[in-house]
Amino acid sequence: MKVAFVSGATRGIGRAIADRLHNAGYRVLYSGTRPERPADLPEDRDYIGCNIADGEQRKAAFAYISQHYGRLDVLVNNAGVAPLVRQDILQMTEESFDRVLDINLKGTMFMCQLAANYMLSQKEHWEDSPRIVNIGSISAYTSSTARGEYCISKAGLGMVTQLLADRLAAEGIPVFEVRPGIIATDMTEKVHDKYAKLIEDGLLPIPRFGEPDDVAKMVEACCSGLLDYAAGQILNADGGFSLRRL
């Protein structure tokens, strides 16, 4: 059975991705920052605690994968955080900047590195190409001056995807990025009314909040093999926001 590791899989987009891959036949290792198994996770699902900002925890997660599964077919880097406090970029603190980039950018980069090296070490046993999918954001190219550190982290993640896709394409490991737009999750709940008004006023060609499963469907497509010749591509799960219409 193919094995998938999904970070940030305890709720929201990550949970939807992990559930969809499970239903598609993968043995999914759900991961979150909490050491203990989430109470609402079904008994037939595997879980490991891993704060991807911590190098030792990243290494421990891959040691666990090697010991318990002996293979990795899909890595989905979904773990990410918003600033604890929204602040104008002229007041943004170094502590907030470091926290967001350590998780969203550095943590994801080195999860990719670990996964790629592990996948390549298993190449003689591949049944099919393994794949890496990074969960970015429309914030990679959309300015939000009250959460600049988040935008910077997602812009950097776009280059991580491009670099890894370039490096790994000839090795047979396609790398993709899915960029969610305005998705109904805990992260957007605090500004729900603002986004609802923008959507009502015509911001999105598809006039609704996205759902976590809208993102999960795109991740499943990336993992299916049907998109492999488009390695390095960005899929916008954004209701048409990227059309930038007048």
Describe it.
- With 246 residues, the protein is an alpha/beta fold.
- The protein has a single domain (3-240), classed as 3-Layer(aba) Sandwich (Rossmann fold), CATH 3.40.50.
- The protein is built from seven helices and seven strands; from the N terminus they run βαββαβαβαβαααβ.
- It has helices spanning 12-23, 55-68, 94-121, 148-169, 186-189, 192-200, 212-223; strands at 3-6, 27-32, 46-49, 74-77, 131-135, 175-180, 234-237.
- The longest helix is centred in the middle third of the chain and has 28 residues, at 94-121.
- The protein is globular, with a radius of gyration of 17 Å.
- The termini are far apart.
- The model has no long low-confidence stretch (mean pLDDT 96).
Architecture blueprint of SSEs:
Blueprint: E1 3-6, H1 12-23, E2 27-32, E3 46-49, H2 55-68, E4 74-77, H3 94-121, E5 131-135, H4 148-169, E6 175-180, H5 186-189, H6 192-200, H7 212-223, E7 234-237
Parallel strand pairs: 1-2, 1-4, 2-3, 4-5, 5-6, 6-7
In short:
The chain has helices spanning about 10-25, 55-70, 95-120, 150-170, 185-190, 190-200, 210-225, and strands spanning about 5, 25-30, 45-50, 75, 130-135, 175-180, 235. By secondary structure, it is an alpha/beta fold.
